[in-house]
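Endonuclease
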Amino acid sequence: MSLLRLASYNLHKCRGLTGPHAPERNLAVINALKPDIIALQEVDFRLGARPEALPRRLIRDATGLVPADMTTTGENSLGWHGQTILMRPDLADQAVLRRLPLPGLEPRGAVVLRLPRLTVIGVHLGLARSSRRAQLARITAQAARIADDNIVLMGDFNEWHDSRGLESLAGFRVIAPGPSYPAPLPQFRFDRIAMSQHLKLLKHGVFTGAQARDASDHLPIWAEIEQP
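Tokens:
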């Protein structure tokens, strides 16, 4: 059996709870988590030219992973709408990435990573539930057209409720591994993974190692699946 370890992590611009900017802490968390694929949110600063908060030059040496090859928000940005996906280099050689603009009250977008037997969609949904509903409806409709049956959607859903706002995911298995926000004393399950019903889930959890409670305001979540 071949396992695939997936993860999602909101970096909070690598500032911990209050600063200073220290991306080495986040990279240590990712390295200890040892994902094969990880969807990241808030990898860029929001103001001005939106420069990268997670320096791309440090990623491979610190984690062994590489960022998805895509057109980013700007020349100095790592991600698109603050999001990127890191993966093992051998997976990156096979990957095709596209960007999916999303509706809502604020600019948002999903990052779609297509591999030969799996499609991973990274998300950071809006603050308003009406926006989140519209965004998930767009994502699921597009996924049905551009992906095969092996789909994993993961990221910061910004949804505290276990069912409201997630209606468009009725055809998916939705996993909220546990409270992941705020990191020092987690109470809300904002970070989730949704996957095609037939994909085999082996394990899942919220990661607290490598001083993750200090590195961001979110804790990373993870899941192990049987590789399609």
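The chain has a mean pLDDT of 94.
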